[in-house]
């Protein structure tokens, strides 16, 4: 996909990023019965665009946004060997562009940015039953690590 450009998101991208956010949420609803069934938000996108702790990227082809993703610098738990890691999220690609390596292009740039911040650990969350996403992340080099568990009571 030589015509695809990966670049930092700007405020001019906000309306499309808000649509992408709803796409992420809609894609995750089948995996999480606790998500609200109305439009909701995961992210404070304007804050992410202006933050020095977040690298929010978009993929663009022919002046159209086709994907997004971010890396956010987080402090590690005090018992871990690393001091900070980058948490990846908002990984979204328009359906007609999936399977073309767009997500990998975004993650490659996020990994480069993370290294430029002197951080060498990437983390992300994925639903345990979202096998296509898990395979994609494993192909990028991620390994399965923890399983979060929950139980509704009362």
Secondary-structure element order, N to C: EHHEEEHEH
Instruction: Bin the helical content.
Output: 25-40%
Q: How would you characterize the largest beta sheet?
A: 5 strands, mixed
The N- to C-terminal Cα distance equals: 51 Å
Name the structural class: alpha+beta
Q: How much of the polypeptide forms β-strand, as a percent range?
A: 15-25%
Number of strands: 5
Brief overview:
The chain has 154 residues and is an alpha+beta fold. Helices cover 30% and strands 24% of the residues. Strand 3 and strand 4 form a beta hairpin.
Textual characterization of the structure:
The chain is of the alpha+beta class and 154 residues long. The radius of gyration is 16 Å and the shape is globular. The chain has helices at residues 14-28, 45-50, 102-116, 131-140; strands at 4-8, 54-61, 64-75, 84-93, 122-123. It is built from 4 helices and 5 strands. Helix 3 (102-116) links the parallel strand 4 (84-93) and strand 5.
Features:
single chain, 154 residues, alpha+beta, 5-stranded mixed beta sheet, 4 helices, 5 strands
What's the structural blueprint in terms of helices and strands?
Elements (H helix, E strand, L loop, with lengths): L3 E5 L5 H15 L16 H6 L3 E8 L2 E12 L8 E10 L8 H15 L5 E2 L7 H10 L14
Parallel strand pairs: 4-5
Antiparallel strand pairs: 1-2, 2-3, 3-4
């Amino acid at each position: 996909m030589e015509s695809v450009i990966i670049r930092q998101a700007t405020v001019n991208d906000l309306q499309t990023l808000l649509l992408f956010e709803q796409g992420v949420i809609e894609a995750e609803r089948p995996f999480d019965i606790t998500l609200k069934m109305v439009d909701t938000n995961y992210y404070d996108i304007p804050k992410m665009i202006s933050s020095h702790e977040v690298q929010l990227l978009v993929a663009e082809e022919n002046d159209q946004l086709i994907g997004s993703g971010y890396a956010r610098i987080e402090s590690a738990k005090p018992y871990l060997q690393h001091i900070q890691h980058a948490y990846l999220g908002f990984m979204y690609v328009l359906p007609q562009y999936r399977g073309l390596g767009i997500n990998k292009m975004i993650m490659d740039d996020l990994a480069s940015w993370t290294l430029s911040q002197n951080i060498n650990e990437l983390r992300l969350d994925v639903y345990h039953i979202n096998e296509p996403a898990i395979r994609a992340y494993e192909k990028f080099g991620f390994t399965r690590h923890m399983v979060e568990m929950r139980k509704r009571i009362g």
